[in-house]
Specification:
mainly alpha, 83 residues, Tet_transcr_reg_TetR-rel_C_sf, 0% strand
Length: 83
């Protein structure tokens, strides 16, 4: 096993470990809630759906210019902030 594979928990680049992304989402959301930086009702399922939906929009929609993409990302992130 190469050093890169060992450091990544035994996964080759691009290889998926079922459920790993969801566990990481749970950890991120828990940390955001604990710090008070995320809305209390925001869940890891919400994060997964937002990332998935954004990827689909970018894949199948018209590509926005960088300023438009940054502006919309700011709107999205501002809506997740704790009050």
């Amino acid at each position: 096993m190469s050093g890169e594979v060992a450091a990544s928990g035994g996964l080759e680049h691009g290889e998926r470990q079922p459920g790993r992304e969801l566990r990481i989402n749970d950890e991120l959301i828990a940390a955001g809630h604990a710090a008070g930086t995320l809305r209390p009702e925001f869940t890891s399922d919400d994060l997964h759906a937002l990332v998935h939906d954004n990827a689909l929009a970018l894949k199948y929609g018209a590509r926005p210019d960088r300023a438009g993409y940054d502006r919309r990302t700011t709107y999205l992130l501002d809506g997740l902030r704790g009050r």
